[in-house]
From TrEMBL:
Signal peptide from the UniProt entry: none
InterPro entries: AAA_9 (IPR035706), AAA_lid_11 (IPR041658), DHC (IPR026983), Dynein_C (IPR041228), Dynein_HC_stalk (IPR024743), Dynein_heavy_D6_P-loop (IPR004273)
Ranges where the Dynein heavy chain coiled coil stalk domain occurs: 7-292
UniProtKB keywords: ATP-binding, Cell projection, Cilium, Coiled coil, Cytoplasm, Cytoskeleton, Dynein, Microtubule, Motor protein, Nucleotide-binding
GO biological process, one term: microtubule-based movement
Gene Ontology CC entries for this record: cilium; dynein complex; microtubule
Keyword ATP-binding in annotation: yes
Dynein heavy chain ATP-binding dynein motor region domain location: 321-542
Coiled coil spans: 177-267, 490-517
Full protein name: Dynein heavy chain
Annotated Dynein heavy chain C-terminal domain residues: 1076-1375
Keyword Cytoplasm annotated: yes
Length: 1379
């Protein structure tokens, strides 16, 4: 085949050479012909445009112009010449008649257009040229003036002549061209034959080549197949090896996937439910809900995973690791929250008081150009508009409890299609909607209340930091400071493991993708085999590295765990601090502030050599540092509470305090106890408390028995009688109690001593350092601040920190640069300008009374958020003063240093402050009188202020008297002494007690009190009697030497602790004060606690406890009272009927709500807001609000209240059954004022006396209700009253001083006898008009009936001393006690 191919190839080459030569000659000839054709055409192309132009001109000739020219008998000479030339070209006679005939032709114009120039004889052309064209008048310009048509014909003649000349030259060339083309055609025909022959030879050669190539290709294919087989054999080995390394992992994954496929429906239901509903809840509650859902799914035969977690169903491990690298805390709550954020269909609204979610979203959004805005910014809608248009993400920070209405279309995703584009209407314009747009809301509010309209349009996610999450974060900070090598190693290890896992995941995804996309035989996929081979190598390397990493991680964690105790203490303290915001809205501290201070203490704390010592030092230093820094921003009443919270939370976290005992301490015992006789040394309240805690805590199970045991009686009596009960020995069975159990025991027995007991507890569990609050230190706070840190004075009534600020400015040489402005209407812009200038010049700017500029507070927040430290002078400081308000911007509070400065406590401190601030001491003309009465005024001022601490026994209403009241009285005292010859005591008493100070007094009983108080300080004896004293002890008296220094020295000698007698009160008032303080302390403590602390191993859950209490109360409710129809109209019967109706309504509400609550706990009905409040009240042993709304006023706890209710119902049952009672239990009535009116009305009808002239004469009987023998003819006997502030002596039948430690005394039966007011008490006895109140709070409001909601009436009681004594004692009668 090769030989044949060579022969044929030679033959083809020879033929090809011959044909090529002939083809070259033919081509040469063809080129000559083309050149000749091009020459002819070029010459014709020069003349043709002229001819074409002439023809166009001819076409434009108007027929009318031709006819007009034809009609001329004697045409102009030039026209005749032109027409003769035309005649010549047409071969006609050259005269005008002939021309007229030619013009008369119908086809004249067309003849001109179709004129063939080749038909014109040469002689005519010569004549045309000589006769006409050479004529100087035969031009276009000259003839144009004569005739347009003639001009056009002239142009045609000239063009025709030119074309004829060209044609004459080109004609011979065209002839030669035709001959050359004929010759070329012949040559090409011969060449075509030769080319055909050549093609036959070439086709034969090509066929031979194809056959040869086919053989070669077959050979090559066999060789390639051999190579492919060898390669595939190697690949098969790699495939088997590579898949073998993945087999185990894929086997496990396949099993998981099969299980997930089976449980797909249930898992997705749980995942969807979690995203839709669980966002606002804590992690523990989420876990409880999911556990219940899993059980429900199983009950409904819906397949679901037993170990369901959102992380496994909706997230990849690699993704979670990336989130954590961006700042997401590693605890489960935060990871679930991250899943919520990226899987919810509604825009996420994140509750983020610590700002962790905010930082995380910002870190994730760095690469996607995240837009950050706030509702307080004026251009937030523009930011949203641009982001929606271009598909950007938007973070809207610091939203409040309300969202701007303009966000409605975005929240509801009101997207519509117009044409091919999706749009969203924002404001008044339609914006193109990009599906890449995302919106995040974050709020710093710790416990916001969002209305349902917001809740259903957003996905609320609770990102509040968890104790475990914070502990892990703080551990990082501790180890980074203490063992930076460990932390760096740990971080690198985490990153390495993350990268390894990511790489393994990517390889697995790629392998599975390549396998799924493989076409045909898998061994032919080289990329797949290469990836598998690389996967095996990488997988082996990664697995080895991860195995080693686990060992290393364990070693690192063991080393790190040694420092966890520090992080745990920090976490405990932070959550105590965070709870403070529930007490007062100004107690706001950010996590950023906390971590900053935590790190600072790690840096500056002493560093002893051993690890154990270092840990002890750090725990002590961190605890003390936070106590100092937080205490300076707390009011005095909350500082001990803060210390106790730290101590108790540390003990709870360490499980030194049992959760059940903690709940008992907070809420007391729940439920009711049977009425049993109690030991004589115990009051009924303490005995009931002992009974309840004995049922709820096994530690105190033997307490009631021990209290009744005669062998232990003496020890218990001592506990109840001494001032320091904690120092007493306890019965043997209780000597092993731990510190908190002892605290609980003493609280149960002697609750008035709780504050001192708590101080002892804090001192024992921490140190005495934590019961000694730091003093006010403005300079220290200034040193801790920076130019971007505001310093906030949290005000209290009577406190003014500006003096301290002025002194500091003077010390720091900033007096001239201190700018002070009081905020109010129209001051916002001025304040803004001061801040702007201050940042530039380094001024101090003080904005006073921020609470009066609530509407400007968002602007202050915006100003602070936009501040840049680099653009602010280092000396600049912003000082703010504000009363506590929940409208103060939270970000400003959290970023600032807070300080409190309260008025001095105690009579001595009050008077010292008054005298330190005095001016014009020597300015009065009556020096001695002025100075002594001024001292009396200062003493009076201090007394009325300090009486407030005793609660209702001090003042019915705690009035906020100010220094300005004292200063006004001081000026008036000086004025009257200067202007009057004698001291006008009566005038001064009236002006001071009833106008200046009394102007703030709204309760008439308080008016009486303030008047009686002042009388003992503004009287002639103050000036005239050198032995005059202000108190029975003689410690307090007017100074005899009245120069300023001597008076201040005398004030300095006064006791620090004030005896109640100086205020006109009995010594027992101290117990009242202690009880009031304890009640406020416990109320505040309870306000910062969760609903109930859970305890492992405890049988009863909160649901079970409440269900049990509800069932117990329901079982004790008696049947509804049944009224008989009254025949006669009798006033007391009508009153009784009204009262019974009220009780029937109350019992019905109680029964219905108790039944509903039980059903709600069982899940049979929805737990409404009202039922939930009722549930919480039962846990706190309080009367529910829905009962209080239809019940009588009462301050009793739930158990006592229920017992009291049953007693009231029993009283009315007896009244209904027996008719007229020997004595009426006044306390049992809703509206005792109505009972008084009914009694008067009965007497008025009986005696025909006008009711408005009647009053009651009070006669206290020498017996109690059980000993009543007869019923008075007129009036009624009443019982059930309690006397506070003194006692009633049955023997002397008058008021006497209280017995020690006895705060209340039950009154004997009182006979209220209606008499005409003018005849009442006309004997010489002294009477004290004793007010009667329904409850111990005393204060009330004026109701629509014209009666006070608390005050009932005055009872005139016989007294052996001046009635003013009992007024100052705060003596009053109460219908009921609080226990």
């Amino acid at each position: 085949m090769m030989v044949e191919l060579e022969g044929k190839s030679k033959e083809a080459n020879v033929t090809e050479q011959i044909v090529s030569k002939e083809a070259a000659e033919a081509q040469k000839k063809k080129d000559e012909v083309n050149e000749m054709r091009d020459s002819c055409q070029a010459e014709l192309d020069q003349a043709l445009p002229i001819l074409e132009q002439a023809q166009k001109a001819v076409q434009s000739i108007d027929k009318a112009a031709i006819n007009e020219m034809k009609a001329l008998k004697t045409p102009p000479n030039l026209v005749q010449i032109v027409m003769c030339a035309v005649n010549l070209l047409f071969g006609e006679k050259e005269d005008w008649p002939t021309a007229q005939k030619l013009l008369g032709r119908m086809t004249f114009i067309q003849d001109l257009l179709d004129f063939d120039v080749t038909t014109v004889q040469e002689r005519r052309l010569q004549k045309l040229k000589q006769t006409y064209l050479s004529n100087p008048d035969f031009t276009k310009e000259k003839i144009l003036n004569v005739s347009q048509a003639a001009t056009t014909l002239l142009v045609w003649v000239v063009a025709t002549e030119k074309f004829a000349q060209v044609k004459k030259v080109v004609g011979p060339k065209e002839k030669a061209l035709k001959e050359a083309e004929a010759s070329l055609k012949k040559v090409e025909q011969e060449l075509s034959v030769k080319m055909g022959q050549l093609k036959e030879v070439q086709d034969m050669v090509n066929e031979l080549k194809r056959n040869l190539q086919t053989s070669i290709n077959k050979s090559e294919m066999l060789r390639q197949q051999q190579q492919t087989a060898e390669i595939q054999l190697v690949r098969a080995e790699k495939l088997v090896s590579g898949l073998a390394s993945e087999a185990e992992r894929w086997k496990v994954n396949a099993a998981l996937l099969e299980e997930d496929l089976r449980n797909l429906v249930g898992n997705i239901i749980l995942a969807a439910g979690s995203i839709a509903y669980l966002g606002p809840f804590t992690y523990n509650y989420r876990s409880e809900i999911i556990a219940k859902w899993i059980n429900n799914c199983k009950e409904l035969s819906i397949p679901v995973s037993d170990n369901f977690t959102l992380q496994r169903i909706l997230a990849e491990e690699v993704t979670i690791r990336e989130w954590q690298e961006a700042g997401l805390p590693a605890d489960n709550l935060s990871i679930d929250n991250g899943i919520f954020v990226f899987n919810c269909r509604r825009w996420p609204l994140i509750i983020d008081p610590q700002g962790q979610a905010n930082k995380w979203i910002k870190a994730l959004g760095k690469e996607t150009n995240l837009q950050i805005t706030k509702l307080s910014e004026s251009n937030f809608l523009k930011t949203l508009e641009n982001s929606i248009r271009f598909g950007q993400q938007v973070l809207m920070e610091n939203v409040e409890e309300e969202l701007d209405p303009s966000l409605e279309p975005i929240l509801q995703k009101q997207i519509f299609k117009k044409g091919a584009q999706y749009l969203l209407r924002l404001g008044d314009q339609d914006i193109p909607y990009n599906n890449e747009f995302k919106l995040y809301f974050t709020t710093k509010l710790p416990n916001p209340h969002y209305i349902p309209e917001i809740s259903i349009k957003t996905t609320i996610i609770n990102f509040t930091v968890t104790p475990q999450g914070l502990e892990d974060q703080l551990l990082v900070e501790v180890v980074r400071q203490e063992r930076i090598d460990l932390e760096e190693k740990r971080v690198n290890l985490i990153l390495q493991i993350s990268q390894d896992k990511r790489q393994l995941q990517e390889l697995e995804d790629k392998i599975l993708k390549l396998i799924s996309e493989a076409q045909g035989r898998i061994l032919e996929e080289e990329d797949l085999i290469t990836t598998l081979d690389a996967s095996k190598i990488t997988s082996d390397t990664v697995n080895q590295r991860m195995a080693q990493s686990k060992i290393t991680a364990e070693e690192i964690n063991q080393a790190r765990e040694q420092y966890r105790i520090i992080a745990r203490r920090g976490s405990v303290i932070y959550f105590v601090i965070a709870d403070l915001a529930l007490i007062d809205p100004m107690y706001q501290y950010s996590l950023e502030f906390f971590i900053k201070l935590f790190k600072k203490r790690l840096e500056v704390a002493p560093n002893p050599p051993s690890l154990e010592e270092r840990l002890a030092v750090l725990i002590d230093d961190i605890t003390k540092a936070f106590y100092i820094n937080i205490c300076r921003g707390l009011f005095e009443k909350d500082k001990l509470l803060f210390s106790f919270l730290i101590a108790s939370k540390i003990q709870l976290q360490a499980q030194y305090i049992h959760a059940r005992e903690w709940n008992i301490f907070l809420r007391g015992g729940t439920g009711t106890v049977p009425n049993e006789e109690h030991p004589s040394f115990l009051n009924e309240k303490s005995w009931k408390n002992c009974m309840m805690i004995s049922k709820q805590s096994h530690v105190f199970a033997q307490l009631p028995m021990s209290l009744k045991d005669s062998n232990d009686e003496q020890l218990w009596r001592e506990v109840m009688d001494v001032q320091d009960p904690w120092k007493c020995d306890l019965p043997l069975v209780f000597r092993s109690l731990d510190p908190f159990q002892k605290l609980l025991l003493f609280k149960t027995l002697r609750d008035e001593k709780l504050v001192i007991l708590i101080k002892n507890y804090v001192s024992d569990t921490l140190t005495s350092f934590f019961i000694e609050p730091p003093v006010f230190n403005l300079k220290g706070a200034f040193q801790d601040s920076s130019c971007t840190t505001p310093i906030i004075f949290v005000l209290s009534p009577g406190a003014d920190p500006i003096t301290y600020l002025l002194n500091l400015a003077k010390d720091m040489e900033m007096e001239t640069k201190l700018k002070i402005i009081s905020l109010g209407q129209g001051q916002g812009n001025i304040a803004k300008e001061l801040i702007k200038t201050g940042r530039r010049t380094g001024d101090w700017v003080c904005l006073q009374n921020c609470h009066l500029a609530i509407t400007w507070m968002p602007e202050l927040e915006r100003i602070q958020e936009l501040q840049v430290e680099a653009d602010t002078d280092a000396n600049y400081r912003l000082w703010l003063t504000s009363m506590p308000t929940d409208k103060f911007p939270v970000p400003v509070l959290q970023s600032g240093i807070k300080l409190t400065n309260e008025p001095p406590k105690g009579l001595k401190a009050n008077m010292m402050r008054t005298y330190n601030d005095l001016s014009g001491y020597d300015s009065c003309t009556k020096q001695d009188e002025y100075k002594k009465l001024l001292f009396s005024l200062a003493f009076f001022h201090a007394v009325i202020l300090e009486r407030r601490k005793f609660g209702p026994i001090g003042w019915n209403i705690p009035y906020e008297w100010m220094n300005s009241d004292f200063e006004t009285c001081q000026l008036q005292l000086k004025m009257y002494l200067d202007e009057q010859p004698e001291v006008p005591y009566q005038t001064l008493n009236y002006i001071i007690s009833e106008i200046n100070y009394g102007g703030r007094v709204t309760d008439d009983k308080d008016v009486r009190l303030i008047t009686d108080l002042l009388k003992q300080y503004f009287c002639p004896a103050v000036l005239n009697d050198s032995n005059y004293i202000f108190s029975s002890s003689g410690v307090y008296h007017p100074p005899q030497i009245v120069d300023l220094q001597s008076v201040i020295q005398y004030i300095s000698s006064l006791p620090l602790e004030d005896d109640p007698e100086v205020f006109g009160l009995h010594t027992n008032a101290n117990i009242t004060f202690q009880q009031k303080t304890v009640a406020e302390f416990m109320s505040t403590l309870l306000s910062v606690q969760p609903r109930m602390v859970a305890e492992k191993g405890v049988e009863e859950t909160p649901d079970q406890i409440v269900f049990k209490v509800a069932k117990e109360i329901l079982g004790k409710l008696p049947p509804l009272l049944v009224q008989k129809k009254e025949v006669a109209i009798e006033s007391l019967a009508i009153f009784r009927s009204q009262e019974v109706d009220r009780f029937i309504k109350l019992v019905r509400v109680m029964r219905n709500s108790l039944e509903l609550l039980q059903k709600a706990i069982q899940g049979l009905v929805v737990m409404s807001i009202e039922l939930e409040k009722m549930f919480n009240s039962f846990l706190d042993a309080k009367v529910p609000e829905n009962w209080e709304n239809v019940a009588y006023p009462s301050l009793k706890p739930l158990g006592s209240w229920v017992t009291d209710l049953n007693q009231r119902l029993d009283f009315f049952k007896q009244w209904l059954e027996n008719g007229t009672m020997k004595s009426y239990w006044l306390s049992a009535m809703f509206f005792p004022q109505g009972f008084m009116t009914a009694t008067k009305q009965t007497y008025a009808r009986k005696t025909k006396t006008p009711i408005d002239t009647l009053t009651f004469r009070t006669q206290v009987r020498p017996f109690y209700k059980d000993n009543i023998q007869d019923v008075p003819q007129d009036g009624v006997n009443i019982d059930g009253l309690y006397l506070q502030g003194c006692k009633w002596d049955v023997g002397t039948n008058q008021l006497e001083e209280s017995d020690p430690l006895v705060l209340f005394q039950e009154m004997p039966v009182v006979w209220l006898e209606p008499v005409i007011a003018s005849t009442q008490n006309q004997n010489s006895q002294k009477f004290y008009k004793c007010p009667l109140y329904k409850t111990s709070t005393r204060r009330g409001t004026l109701s629509t009936t014209g009666h006070s909601t608390n005050f009932v009436l005055y009872l005139e009681l016989i007294t052996g001393v001046e009635p003013a004594v009992w007024t100052r004692r705060g003596v009053a009668l109460l219908c009921q006690l609080d226990d």
